[in-house]
Amino acid sequence: MRSMSKKISQIILIFTLSFGWIFSGWPLILSYAQEATTPEATSTPESLINEIEEEEAPAEEVAPVFSAPSEPSPPALKERKLNKKVRLDKNASHSCAAKNFSVNLSGQNQASIELEFNGLRSDTEDIEIGSLPLGIDITFFNNANYSFSPRRSDNGAVLQITNQPGSQKGNFSIPIIYTSGNSETICQINIINL
Question: Lowest CB count within 10 Å: 19, 28, 32, 87, which one?
């Protein structure tokens, strides 16, 4: 019982000292204290007139300060993440293939790849580019989009590849989902960016 009352009195003492220290203003804990200015009670009308005249005196002309224009920040790197379930048809009668399977983008800003469409094709088709690495953008030349719906008479399409400064480095396999009717298959291209 005695140790319990001793602990309680210690807690009360610590709390009281902390509370008093925080709200006493010494030493200054928070730096947002405002300085208050009080008017002087000994001001005379003559001293007030002198103060007003000093305040109204024209200030020296100051040359405007110009700062150098800041460098524009580089554009944000594009990134495409395709969240789509693909149901590959093992018996698909259509396919696509890149004329040049691999493209080396190292040190280049742009490149292009031609795709060829093969096999038995339906009247409704769609080709979509899969996920892309950060800073590397691939769109269809025909419409500048990530998907393209070719006509049955189209034998291929051109992919336009853009490599932004600061893009992700590596060797990437890019899937291209080719849907013809209800059948899905994948062709791919290889992008090298070292």
Answer: 32
